[in-house]
Write a structure and sequence with these properties.
217 residues, alpha/beta, 6 helices
Length: 217
Amino acid sequence: MRIVIAGAGTLGRRVAMYTRADHEVLVIEQSRDRARAVEEELGVKTLVGDADEPQVLFDAGVDRADVFVASTGHDEDNLVASLLAKNEYKVRKVIAAVRNPRNRWLYNRSWGVDVAIDSAEIVTKLIEEEATLADVVTLLDLREGEVTVSSMSISEGHWAAGKTMKQLGLPEGCVIAALLHDTQILMPQPDTVVQAGDQLLIIAGPGAECQIREELA
């Protein structure tokens, strides 16, 4: 795949690091020094510029990209870049990081976003476990419409600890796509038991609000 990443912060660098071996990766970064550091450290192509500018995206080859990742540190930049990538350059998969939860409502197809990542931590964990961006996209099974990725940590004493996936009672339109247990990424089954310390990767379909109820009915 051809992957264009906007922003060379922690998330952008990690995506580039773990996808560069199997895919063609280019990172757009405003800071010339940071762009040079990423290029030297990771050996990926970089372009110095503002991903909010159509000409910069064109120069980066976004019109030929399979995946565009908006991972700058500012929601307004991520949203504008996503809108341009989807509407102007017709990128098939647009993934954008939500920096301020208050802005989550903006991350939808109106702004060109296929996948809104509420938690950079969950994606970073997946990447650290050597899952490539292709694996993440496959995991999400992205379709037309809004998809939200979020995570939930099961603390000691949480009512869900010791319960099976079937007992968690997620609303319709929500699915637990993965369970992070210690250093393992597990694909949960209905009888998989959740343990204290686990993290759940929750995928929400269009319009769905995925919250595990606080206690059993």
